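Aggregate trends can hide what the representation actually does to any particular protein. The sequence in question and its structure tokens are set out directly beneath this paragraph.
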Amino acid sequence: MTLSPSHPLMDGRTANSPLITAYRGGKPSRRPVWFMRQAGRSLPEYRELRTGTTMLESCLKPAMAAEITLQPVRRHDVDAAIFFSDIVIPLKLAGVGVDIVPGVGPVLDHPIRTAADIAALPELTDAALDPIREAVALTVAELGSTPLIGFAGAPFTVAAYMVEGRPSRDHLGPRTMMHAQPELWAGLMEWAADASGKFLRAQIEAGASAGQLFDSWAGSLGLADYTEHVAPASSRALDHVRDLGVPLIHFGTGTSELLGAMHAVGVDVMGVDYRLPLDEANRRLGGTVPLQGNIDPALLSAPWEVLEQHVRDVLAAGAAAPSHVVNLGHGVPPETDPAVLTRLVELVHSIQP
């Protein structure tokens, strides 16, 4: 299947944008920059809009999700919008009991730990994704030539929440299950892969020009466990969208030792967290993969001259790769001064690619 002729990648709106050009390994007209978690917590206009609305409600109100997605593009002049949602939205839309508890994170009504639990998981239907399609369509109609990036949680991170029932520091539950009950684990990972894959496909078909798979917790794994018990499901999730032909990005935190295996699931671009210099990431990936990253979010609150030098160092290291999309090495901290992000974007754009 191909994208609709009216899709932004097909009708000329975003195909030659700096972001898509860099994602495809070309030389953009300016250095593309966007920030993970740019849509949300650090913006006062976001907090005002969200007043009285829960996180999941805000994700599932198409007009609100679209407005939140657009806010940082208007404010910062970033080169991409990232769709405002959450990795547990596919669970919610499928009918799994889950909520995002303030100060805690995703919490399931009933953790998934037995064969009966997995057998009882509902299928995510195509119709259930209609609010996502509507939100994306509203967003893309306002973005013009700025691409929208769709996203989904990678199966391991989704499954880790499902097994633990809430956020965890060490992810012992899923790490135990993959060895103690490998068939159970494989079944859960297949469900999570299909849910995330369908979620990502709905966004791309509705107008997203790229797709990013987030594996927030993969850094808790060794390479052997990742390769055997996780990578096949990540590849399965991406199988849902490969035929659409959009650039695909993979990002995880604490995953410096997994970069090659994460790239091998079949993506075009690798996101790199703040722990590994981009020139070293480029070396580990053989010098053939466009990179995204990796400004340390901690430095957003440092004196400007410290942050500026760090940004220049990141750009210099990124120059080793075939192409480089500037980003953070994780998400925007909620206490970040939005004016710093705006100034950072101006700095990046002022430096010739």
Summary: The first strand starts at residue 81 and ends at 82. Strands lie at 81-82, 98-101, 105-108, 148-153, 210-215, 248-252, 269-271, 291-295, 324-328. The first helix runs from residue 18 to 23. The mean pLDDT is 97.
